[in-house]
Amino acid sequence: MSSVFGILFRVATFGESHGRAVGCVVDGCPPRLPLSEADIQAQLDRRRPGQSALTTPRGEADRVTILSGVQDGVTLGTPIALLVENRDARPGDYASLADIPRPSHADFTYAAKYGLRARSGGGRASARETIGRVAAGAIAEKWMRLRFGVEIIAWVSAVGEREAPDRREQPPMRAEVDRYDTRAPDAESDAAFRAEIEAVLAARDSVGGVITCVCRGAPAGWGEPVFGKLEAELARAMLSIPAVKGFEIGSGFAGAHMRGSAHNDPFVRKEGRLGTATNRSGGIQGGISNGEDICFRVAFKPPATIGQPQKTANFNGEPVVLEAKGRHDPCVVPRAVPIVESMAALVLADAALQQLAREAAGGDARRV
Questions:
Q1: What is 4-362's CATH number?
Q2: Beta strand pairing status for 294-300 and 162-163?
Q3: CA 350, 354, 358 angle in degrees (round to 5)?
Q4: Which pLDDT belongs to residue 207?
Q5: Are 14 and 8 in contact (CB under 8 A)?
Q6: Can you say whether the dihedral through the CA atoms of 16, 18, 20, 24 is positive or negative?
Q7: Is the peptide bond before 226 cis (omega within 30 degrees of 0)?
Q8: What does the H/E/C string look like for 127-179?
């Protein structure tokens, strides 16, 4: 779908990169959830441009306004409309690109699909579309935190060839991640990531990276097999984020090199419930959460817009040299951390509501 995500906790996003505004409508949020604009703004501040010298200098405050669905500080259960105005749009920066599809951007494919495209900043294909996702995800995350005690933490675990130590078993706190502009999990990794990003800035180039996410506190039983498996929904959500090219959960691709005797997660009794001694499954088995931490990683490609001249072709196939203008991130992963968290929150909130509906209809038959 071009705009709608979710089954019971549904989100419709709208707006283009250099249009008047972006935003979303959230449908299915339970009533009586305490909610203010400040609850949403905290995540938008972590996503917004211009927050450090390592990001795009576009000067957007990204202030959110709640238009509907909230009364006297609590949700009504009706659709929640959220709006963020574009205050620093510069469509003129893209005038010279009207006839040139930018390499590795969506210019060519959008034109092939619709017969025309939003020429300013990529339109819906721009990462600015994710503002609506982050705003909606903040609502989903608060509801799950209050209802189930779920906590979602993401951090930058790699930039280019530089990798941080594996922190999946002991994830950093969000305040610890936000201590660094790179959203690294520790000071040493931050220094390495910063050096890599500064190097590509100086070279007028870009670099990719990896974000690791851990969701703690989700009970066993979430997920709708066989075609609505929880890891499949998480993968679909993450791969819908601009610039994402890879997703793996638990042991991921490394598990393909292991034997079953080493990969299996034995069951043990812990904390008053049946759990697993290891977590190579990443908290999901058979498409259903098993009560362990849900752990996954998301790979982002280098941003397509770079400052170097690039040999390419215009829409007529004639050779041209593209020298892109505009304001762009040299590496998207520091600002993408709240986007990953928000999409995880939307998936889990939807899965939670589906499981609550199932239990209400047929009784809670779980015995673990």
A1: 3.60.150.10
A2: unpaired
A3: 170
A4: 97
A5: no
A6: positive
A7: yes
A8: HHHHHHHHHHHHHHHHHHHHHHCCEEEEEEEEECCEECCCCCCCCCCHHHHCC
Burial of 307 (0-12, 13-18, 19+ CB in 10 A): middle
Cα–Cα distance measured from residue 230 to residue 351, given in angstroms and rounded to the nearest whole number: 8
Task: List, for residues 186-208, the tens digit of each pLDDT value.
Answer: 999 999 999 999 999 999 999 99
The structural domains of the chain, with segments of one domain joined by +, span 4-362
Q: What angle do CA 2, 7, 361 make, to 5 degrees?
A: 170
**Helices (H), ranges, the chain:** 37-47, 107-114, 130-148, 174-177, 187-202, 230-239, 260-263, 333-362
Measured from the Cβ of residue 46, the count of other Cβ atoms closer than 10 Å reads 21
Exposure class string for 166-194: b at 16+ Cβ within 10 A, else e: ebbeebbebebbeebbbbbbbeebbebbb
Strand partners, 299: 210, 246
pLDDT at 70 over 70: yes
Q: How far apart are CA 347 and CA 226, in angstroms?
A: 16
Please enumerate in sequence order all residues whose Cβ is within 8 A of that of 269, keeping only pairs 6 or more positions apart, or say none: 275
Is-contact 136 33, C-beta < 8 A? no
pTM for the whole structure: 0.94
Query: What are the phi and psi torsion angles at 71 (to 5°)?
Result: -140, 130
Confidence of residue 326 (pLDDT cuts 50, 70, 90): low
Q: What is the DSSP string of 297-329?
A: EEEEPPPS--SS-EEEE-TTS-EEEE---S---
C-alpha span between 252 and 267 (Å, rounded) = 20
- Give the side-chain half-sphere CA count within 13 A for 32: 2
Q: Report whether 124 contacts 111 (CB < 8 A).
A: no
Amino acid at 234: L
Write the single-letter amino acid at 135: A
Residue type, 290: N
Token couple for 125: 């294909």
List the beta bridge partners of residue 155: 212
| Rounded Cα–Cα distance for residues 17 and 9 (Å) | 25
pLDDT, tens digit (0-9, with 9 covering 90-100), for 43-57 = 999 998 777 778 777
